[in-house]
Amino acid sequence: MKLQVAIDLLSTKDALTLLEKVAEHVDIIELGTPLIKQEGLAVVTAVKAAYPNKIVFADMKTMDAGALEADMAFKAGADLVSVLAAAGDSTISGAVDSAKKHNKGIVADVIGVLDKATRVKQLKALGVQSVELHAGLDEQAEAGYSISKLLEAGRGADIPFAVAGGVNLDRISEVEAAGASVAVAGAAIYGASDPAAAAKALRAKIKNLG
């Protein structure tokens, strides 16, 4: 299982400062939607230039103009780009076509999708590389939220999937057991008092699980 850091900081400088501490411990660098909206796709280019051997994931959360937005992100240096699973099939197919052209990958984010299991099957048929079973920050703040619902959807998925939404040192073993190919940690890393130690501990836990 790979470890992905989701960076929801709001400047390229802060993102690069964080990565100086944690990059060695992660496989995938996700540049969060707020960061890309604040800094533009230049942050993708800057991070890929600084870490050319890491997988750089532009979390675009595309809802329309799938081919166009994916093409923009790939040209900026992204290896992976997200499209919303709630988008129309033509939008997702357009993004997938762009990924094939660039020899890159599309991740479909199921945030906000109620029937995740059904949509995941459809997404596989549309050709996405993987899906991200994702509960956003607002959903995580709701009373009664549990990562267990995401893991349940993953157990029935016949496609590589990531889990994002409350992944931390205490829950990462559950993510691994559910069959996830990627564990996504955001606040558990960038919000830690010692981000390097937090990322290192997550990496060690994954190795021990394996």
From TrEMBL:
Q: Which reaction does it catalyse?
A: D-ribulose 5-phosphate + formaldehyde = D-arabino-hex-3-ulose 6-phosphate
What EC designation does it have? 4.1.2.43
Question: Which GO MF terms are attached to this record?
Answer: 3-dehydro-L-gulonate-6-phosphate decarboxylase activity; hexulose-6-phosphate synthase activity; orotidine-5'-phosphate decarboxylase activity
Q: Which stretch is the leader sequence?
A: none
UniProt-recorded name of the protein: 3-hexulose-6-phosphate synthase
The keyword Lyase is assigned to this record: yes
Listed under GO biological process in this entry are: 'de novo' pyrimidine nucleobase biosynthetic process; L-ascorbic acid catabolic process
Q: In which pathway does it act?
A: One-carbon metabolism; formaldehyde assimilation via RuMP pathway; D-fructose 6-phosphate from D-ribulose 5-phosphate and formaldehyde: step 1/2
Q: Which family does it belong to?
A: Belongs to the HPS/KGPDC family. HPS subfamily.
Keyword vocabulary terms for this entry: Carbohydrate metabolism, Lyase
Q: One Pfam family, short name please?
A: OMPdecase
- The residue ranges of the Orotidine 5'-phosphate decarboxylase domain are 2-202
The record, for InterPro entries, names:
3-hexulose-6-phosphate_synth, Aldolase_TIM, HPS/KGPDC, OMPdeCOase_dom, RibuloseP-bd_barrel
- Taxonomic superkingdom: Bacteria
